[in-house]
Target: Membrane protein
Amino acid sequence: MTGAGELSTGVALGCLGAAAWLAGSGWRTGARRARLVLAGDGTGSTGPPPPGRRMTDAVLRVRGRLTPEWWAPVAGLLLAVPGDSVLPVVAGAAGVPLLRRTRLSRRARRTRERRQDAVIALCGVLAGEVRAGRQPGEALLCAVNDSGGLGDGQSAVLAAARFGGDVPVALAAAARQPGAEGLRGLAACWRVAVDQGAGLAAGLDRLEGALRAERDQRSDLRAQLAGARATAVMLAGLPVFGLLLGAALGSDPLHVLLHTGAGLGCLLAGGVLEGLGLWWVTRIVRKTEAAS
Model:
C-alpha cells in the first residue's frame, strides 16, 4: 500500500508538473502572438501587406507630399494624353509658380488673421488681470500664458516684464510681425499708464474695442467682395466648361486647339484674356482691401 501510495503521489506530481509546463508554454505562445498582433496590422499576420493596401499607402504618401500647385502638371498630363500634345503639360508646369504664390499668400493671410485675433484676446485678458489687482508686469505674464498674441517677440517681452526692462520697446518690436500691429497700441497704453499713472485697464478696454471694430470691418469688406471673388472663380472655370460642352456636342475641342493653326491662335488669345481678367479682378480686390 505504501509503494502504491508513493507511486500515485509521483504520478500526481508528474501530472501537475506537466500541466504547469503546458500552461507556461501556452502562456508564452499567447504572449508572443499578442506581441505580433500589436506590432502588426491587428490580424496577427506577419507577412507583407496585400498589394491593394501597398498601392493605397503609396498614393496617400504621394498625396501628402504633393502641395496643391503640383496638381497643375498632373492635370496637364491628363489632358496631354487624350490631346496627344505636350502643350498642356507645359502650361501646367508654367502655372506652378503662380499657384504656389497664391497658396503662400493665402497661408500668410490666415496667419496674420490668427495673430490679430490673438492680440485682441491678449488685450482683453490683460485688462481683466489688471482689473483683478495684479501689477502690470505680473498681469502681462499671466495674460500671455492664457492667450498668447506676442508671436516671435514673446521671449523678449516676457524678459522685459519679468526683469524690469523696457516693455513698450519690446512690444513695439513685436508689433513688426504681420498681424501684430495692435501691439503698438498696447505699448502706447503701457507707456502712458507707467509714465503718467493713467488707468491701464481702461486704455486696454478701448484698444480692444477698436481692434475688434477694425476686424469686423475687414470681415464685412470681405463679405462684400465675395461677388468679385466669385467672378474670378467663374472666369477660371469657363475654359473647362467650354471644353466639356464641346466634347458633349460630339466635337474634339482638344484636337482643334492643339493641332490646328486657328485652334492654337484661339488658345493663345484665350489664355491671354483669361490671365488679364483674373489679374484685373484680383487687382480690384487687393486695392479695395488696401484702401480699407
